Batch of 2 targets.
Target 1
Amino acid sequence: MGDEQELLKQIRQLKLENSQLRNQLENGGVLGKNTIDGDVNTATATQYPLTLDEYHRYGRQMIVEETGGVEGQIKLKNAKVLVIGAGGLGCPSLPYLAGAGIGTIGIVDNDTIDTSNLHRQILHSTNNVGMLKCESAKKYLNMLNPNVKVITYPVRLDNNNAFDIMKDYDLVLDCTDTPVTRYLISDVAVNLGMTIVSASGVRTEGQLTILNFKNVGPCYRCFYPVPPSPNSVSSCSEGGVIGPCIGLVGVMMAVETIKLLLDAYTLDNWEPFLMQYSGFPKQTLRTFRMRGRKNNCKCCGTNPTINKQMIESNEIDYQEFCGARNYNVCSDNERITVKEFEESYHKIDKKDYILLDVRPPHHYDISHLSYTYNVPVKSLRNMNGSLEQLQEVIPDVNKNSEIVVMCRFGNDSRLATRLLKDEFKINNVKDVAGGFFKYIDDIDQTIPKY
Ligand code: ZN
């Protein structure tokens, strides 16, 4: 371990010297052009390892003692940082990283911009809806600071590409929103000896931590050896999020990244932590001390069983490990299209059927179809198949009722259809494929989508 640290130190020193030499070569001309009263400025390039633009641009941060001045700036310039996810966390983080002069920034994201992203993903703009998020981010960062090299990866990080992409960077920011990707990033980072700045946010809250600091841990698996139940994971499309709440956490990620690159944390002063931000009801930020590496951790422990070969051969199936929720629980004849729903039920005002909307009430309140019962899928589940309890919210329902079920995207409605048929023993239940939003897209675009 000691030898390894010594080697890392030497490599850093060599990198620094290398960049100083490169700057001397590049800046000889720039400095030479500097004239005072017609005289050539005779200052040597060794005295000024950065370009004049860089002194000007970063001056206000270089004069902050904590940055270590020019030497710190050179560390940032030589750094290569990978941001995985250009969404709610990546967007507020990226401009500060580029603004600070981090030399190379990689961005991994295969998603395109949707209008519903823009309240929190403020790097993107209305003009760029439909554009790849990584490309939109690159465009913005290039305008903010042309000194920064931005490399984009319009792919979803997976077992096959993770090592290839991550190996070229010093540090990684996990700005993703699923446990599947979090475990993958953590495992690969541990195998590559990379530090991770990791955060998450949903609704009004966020969390932030540093994982695998200088390869002494803890890693994501030390914190969460067992993945959370897929039913407890809420993504942004389900749970919603307040823009500035997740934004603040993204900005804090940038602070931690800059601190790491400036060597503010050392092996001596390092203590694992977890910061927790709440936006409501009062804004609070609490920092918890966390336990260090777990000796029995499968990835970073003393006898690790997870290695590159296992990841790349797909021997580790992260989807399966995290138990992705299976929505594929209805047969084709249990489902109808939005068109069939419109023609056979809604438009003709079909009598004696029950239209059941299983979205949460605060979703339902934004927009819904008329003559609808709203019973969230969660409430249905809690009734444990009791028809009496269901009758408390839908008075006319019985085992012979005809029910059509709808939710936002057509996932929860399938689970609800299954519950109604299997647990409540109601036989005539149909799921509307694609849900309320598909209905809006294909049938009635005057209804607000959110
Ligand atoms: Zn671990």
Target 2
Amino acid sequence: MRVANLNGRASLITTDNLAIDIAQASGGTLPHDPMQIFERWTQVRSLAATARGGVPFASAELDAPSPAPRQIFGIGLNYREHAVETGAPIPDTPLTFTKFASAVNKPFGDIIIDVPTADWEIELVVVIGAGGRNIPESAAWAAVAGLCVGQDISDRVLQRATQPPQFSLGKSRAGYAPFGPWLVDAASVTNRNALPLMCTLNDEVVQQSNSSDLIFTIPQLIAYLSSIVALYPGDVVFTGTPSGVGGARTPPMFLAPGDVLVSTIDGVGSITNRCV
Ligand code: ZN
């Protein structure tokens, strides 16, 4: 099952890439608001099993699948090779920061580049279903609504402007959190612990890895976070980026207006963001 935010309305995406409006198809039993379906995920699954039809749509009509999350978590240094390329030790606790919600961007949205040190980070993004506190690892996948593709865009200078560094503002400029193009139901992704990720910049591969290389797995992250804070329906977790970011290159490379970033996770989807 795939669920998208199409022009502000929760929609099923069929295998033929047609959109079915969830509120209409459910006869009004389910809400149209994409933020209100996460608590009703089981009913959305039932609807998806029986809904037929659908209408074509353009990728520009897709908005972030959780457009107004109460919390967005980012996990730093969660791939070994990325920790190594930044010169940081392998963490023994998830390095957690937030991307503030005003940074949320559409999966095919433009990113405004008005600083010289904006960098890319393809990430597997998790959106929480019912949520809760103290979710054990064994129940963590059941707490996930779906998976999608994200870019944790980062202003490297702002990210490290203070000592000790506080990442959150440097990762929260306008448009720095595109994700989508839709949610793939976590229950229907057979290889959800081993998903190939690839990011291209102007058609050149800059990042290529597999989510099986995550240091802290998705169940471990959900158990860890929910042992401290409550996870709310629609909360978003950027699970970390593999190696190949621009700032760690010699010489460093950063995003500039005109660049095109394509971020793809096999079996999940692909997003495209133009730098302007
Ligand atoms: Zn990141």
